[in-house]
Amino acid sequence: MVLLLSGTIHAAVPWSPSRPVKIVVPAGEGGGADLMARLIAEVVEKRRFIPHRIQVVNKPGGSGAEGYLHVSKLNGDDHTLLITLSNIFTLPIALGAPYHWNEMTPVARLGLDEFILWVHSESPYANLQGYLKDVRSSPEKFRMGGTGVAQEDQIVTILIEQTAGVKFAYVPLGGGGSVAQALSGKKVDSTVNNPSEARKLWKEGSLRPLAVLDKARIESAPWNSIPTLKEKGLDVSYLMLRGIFAPPGVGDSVISFYRDLLRKVYDTEEFREYLRKNALQPAWMTGGEFSEWLAGQDELHRKLLGKVGLK
């Protein structure tokens, strides 16, 4: 007996978005996360990498917890992404925000961001030593602007305080862009803004950098003119995550699509120039390696928060 089978075999069609994709930013407009998210959206549209727009949605409430909680509840939503800061680790530990980073789906690490201690250009302080000398002599008089409670800015501020024997009056503000504008408007005395948040104001002449919070100087000009805290005898360094997550329960084919899309963006001249101009360290990482790195960062931030008394 011969059995004849007839029919058509269809190859599996790779997943791709069927409508606009949202990138949720757990921070306000003008900060480092917001600027990077908007650049990604711009590059995707300009290069026509997908036939749909990417929409940037800011959810800065609760020092960013609003954005993380929102995405953590979008189980299986394959048209939403999240751009992350290192406060993805700190908010649950320090403030009890009811989510955990590993409930969501890591996609890719895009960069590591620097912190710089800034003062206003019209302040009398041309160097780190002079500024910290006066801060030390007047505890809690000098206002340090930051992005919120238990945020990266507060962590590095306390690390400086502990290492230098000083005490600032920490002023939590809405986001990195707002913090830089507050310093430009002389509403605070200093900030620890990321380079991207303060670069334009520095170029315009309203801000002055005193020190980089890293183990070595930033390599690219004009950033390489700024000394490190370590050069001045203060062993304080900290780098911030710039990465992309998807909600929980998103399939492997979806993650593969977004990983490939982000790699295309990462390899463009526009994105590489953004990293160079804004002193971000290129740091592409995906898959199991990225998940292991995230677990290590979670443990690191638990220790840091304990050290600075925010845990």
Q: Can you characterise this structure?
A:
The protein has helices at residues 32-47, 65-72, 87-95, 128-137, 152-164, 176-184, 195-204, 252-266, 269-277, 287-307, and strands at residues 21-25, 54-58, 80-84, 105-113, 116-120, 143-146, 169-172, 190-191, 207-212, 240-246, 281-285. With 311 residues, the protein is of the alpha/beta class. The protein folds into two domains: 21-113 and 239-307, Bordetella uptake gene, domain 1 (D-Maltodextrin-Binding Protein, domain 2, 3-Layer(aba) Sandwich); 116-232, Periplasmic binding protein-like II (D-Maltodextrin-Binding Protein, domain 2). The strands form two sheets. It has a six-stranded mixed sheet. α3 (87-95) crosses α10 (287-307).
List keywords for this structure.
alpha/beta; disordered N terminus; 11 strands; 2 domains; D-Maltodextrin-Binding Protein, domain 2; 39% helix; 311 residues
Summarize the structure.
The chain is built from 10 helices and 11 strands. With 311 residues, the protein is an alpha/beta fold.
